[in-house]
Amino acid sequence: MEQMPSKEQILQWITDNPGLSAKRDIAKAFGIKGAARIELKRILGELAETGAIAKKGRSYRDPEGLPPVSILVITGPDAQGDVFARPMEWTGEGEAPRILFVPKKGDPALAAGERILARLSPVDVGEYQYEARLIRHIGTNPLRVLGVFRAGAEGGRIVPIDKGQDKEWRVGRDMTLGAKDGELVEGEAVGRRNMGLPQARVTAVLGDPSGPKAVSLIAIHQHGIPDQFPDAVIAEADRAQPAPLEGRTDLRDLPLCTIDPADARDRDDAVYAEHDTEPGNPGGFVVWVAIADVAYYVRPGSALDREARKRGNSTYFPDRVVPMLPDVLSGDLCSLHQHVDRACIAVRMRLDAQGAKISHRFVRGMMRSVASLSYEQVQAAVDGNPDAVTAPLLEGVLRPLYAAYAATKHARALRQPLDLDLPERRIELSEAGEVTSVSFKERFDAHRLIEEFMILANVAAAEELVRLKRPLLFRVHEEPTPEKLDALREVAEASGFVLAKGQVLQTRHLNTLLAAAQGTEFDELLNITTLRSMTQAYYFPQNFGHFGLALKNYAHFTSPIRRYSDLIVHRALIAGHGWGKDGLSAQDIETLDETAKLISDSERRSMAAERDTTDRYLAAYLAERVGAEFTGRISGVQRFGLFVKLDETGADGLIPVRSIGREFFHFDQDSQTLTGADTGMTIGIGQRVTVRLAEAIPVTGGITLDLLEIEGGAMPRAAPRKGRFNPRKPGQAAAREGKLKRKLVRKRR
Fold first, then answer.
1. CA-CA distance, 287 to 349, in Å (whole number)?
2. Pairing of β 249-250 and β 357-368
3. 151 and 115 in contact (C-beta within 8 Å)?
């Protein structure tokens, strides 16, 4: 018998031979026989207790590795067409290993979401850690449903909360997971649907759906937003230490300050301005914008990086935030709190007297904010009502910021970015999470000041990386499509305004239209319609400009705590200036296209979740006012009804077409109108209406309205046409039924 191997030797064997990890295989490999196997069993037991290996059945394996036969989920092909997968179960630290699927002749084509049983072979090629070969095709990832559980004798049903999903799901008695009647649950489809309701099983019980604090939780689950950080990510964040001053430009003497909403959860940008004393720039300014150096803490390829990329951005709700980074970073080490040293990447910009940027310079620095201020606080100070915090900063910090901002307004007027005026709703919640009021947020010059300086810094970052010839993610906003412009033009003409044809569209043309409508009853309508005519902005490695801002070069640089795109730009600046080894990696560059698509999609996901949450809060706020009358404006027309935006809250409600008068309405897709078949009455976007609240359902966010008046007049009643079916007329209903039966008999023959 050979000498008993050490624990290190056993661990190495298990790692190198994942397919031969049973005790007998290990014993055979090391020539262990007889009573010596008892000692081997003891050693394996100790290794399992310490977590060095994991025992499953009679086999042992590296807990950081995968078993030789695993169930995988296909994640889809990359840009080169290679198909990758992830394991269904992963208990190791960090993100699961990447697996390349290697098809053989006769294997089926696999799409994202499909599950397979595969044999794995460990490889070491950097891009992926395993190769997989198909054993059996299992099927697709089961369809998921979020809804209210209704208990029954045979188990129960799930009633979906999604407004677009009206079918219920049947749940067997042994698949309820202990859910009680009325609880919010998450489920997944099981079995095949033949006849009747589709079947599902409950996979998670989420509690009372009517509870105020369940509103955002519903959106989080419904849209699949990751809201729990893996242990490896939390552990990595907990190990982070403050960045040292070494190798950084010391900016701690600059009186930089942060200006944010009063309830800001993170502070990632600080500003400072002063008059330019350099010759040749009379009346000019120097503006500093310092941004949290998140790249120092979130390194390429780390667990933190993989999780941040997966999330794409933070998602904000009235009662909570789902952050991109753990709170120890987003709320502490990366947040530019007052009076503490914080690592930053800053840009010094020189502006001329008209606010045009004439030069910029980037540094990797260390700053110390002099104050954490709110928009309201800053505006009050400049308007003559400083408090104890802003009074000492008024002359040396705040007034120079406003003076520099005043200069930028000249440059902005020349550039003519799209000037939409869309008030933002503010939902106030009580401690219990109930809606106490819905109002529109006030906008101050303090808001516009920060927005303008952030745009300047984003432009500087894009221009700097173009100059350095470094890859980056641009923020792209393409011009509207001809079809959307035609729709906007029709609404404008119907409202008495003109948007000329036959010219290359520029934002100044749209601004002329919006300015003409300002102060009229069509003001809000044309702002909303113009917004809807715009294409959605997205991230892309190639530069196609930003139409809405009227800018040639634009990238997101100013919010790396809450946007992964900005972290990529920071890394590109670090690599371009040689500031350290934590710059843009080769893997970052190789996957830029994939990253751009991923974070553009996650941004849309967050927007949809935030919008759905607002709808549910508004429905909850209005639920106790069913029967009340409201004024509003028609904001959308579809075949099935009218959408109305209420003046008081900005909530959107639906008037079903069946409840509009007593006649048939023809829908015109091009003009976005409904026209009565009998009265000839035309209903279109922008018309003023008075409505009655018929129903408000907080769980779905659905609001249903009854139309009372349109443009100040009551709905006209259509006279019954000759031969028109009237169910109230004696004998006509029976005659109609008999006619339908005779028609059905003839059809069957």
1. 5
2. parallel
3. no
| End-to-end C-alpha distance for the chain, whole angstroms | 88
Tokens 């409950």 sit on residue: 202
Angle (CA) 337 338 340, round 5°: 80
User: In this predicted structure, what is the pLDDT of residue 142?
Assistant: 65
Output the CA torsion sign for 22, 26, 32, 35. Answer: negative
Q: How far is CA 669 from CA 76, 536, 675, 680, 684, in A?
A: 37, 22, 12, 17, 11
Structure-token match 């933190």, residue found: 304
- 474/461 Cα distance (integer angstroms): 10
SS3 321: strand
User: What total of structural domains would you count in the chain?
Assistant: 6
Nearest by Cα to 673 from 694, 642, 649, 695: 642
Residues 495 and 360 in one domain: no
726 within some domain: no
Confidence of residue 36 (pLDDT cuts 50, 70, 90): confident
263 and 396 together in one domain = yes
d(CA 44, CA 38): 10
* 101 shares its domain with 164: no
Read off the pLDDT of each residue in 332-350 and give the average, rounded to a whole number: 96
Of 181 and 214, more confident: 181
In a domain, 740, yes or no: no
pLDDT digits (tens, 9 = 90+) for 541-580: 999 999 999 999 999 999 999 999 999 999 999 999 999 9
Q: Does a structural domain hold residue 449?
A: yes
Counting DSSP H helices and E strands in the chain, the numbers are 17, 34
pLDDT grade for 53, boundaries at 50, 70 and 90: low
What interhelical angle do 592-622 and 564-577 show, nearest 10?
150
Non-local CB neighbours of 74 within 8 Å, separated by 6+ positions? 83, 84, 85, 101, 110, 111, 112, 113, 114, 115, 116
**Spatial distance between the Cα atoms of 334 and 156, rounded to a whole number of angstroms:** 48
**Average pLDDT taken over every residue of the chain:** 85
Sign of CA dihedral 427, 428, 434, 435: negative
Whole-prediction pTM value?
0.73
CA angle, residues 254, 258, 263, in degrees to nearest 5: 160
Domain holding 434, by residue range, is: 232-474+545-607
* Beta carbons of 291 and 558 less than 8 angstroms apart: yes
The answer to whether residue 339 is domain-embedded is: yes
Q: Are 631 and 647 in contact (CB under 8 A)?
A: yes
Say which range, 347-356, 537-546, 617-626, has the weakest mean pLDDT. 617-626
Q: Are residues 426 and 337 in the same domain?
A: yes
Residues 630, 600, single domain; the answer is no
Is residue 637 within a helix (H) or strand (E), and if so which, with residue range?
strand 629-638
Structure token pair of residue 424: 């933002």
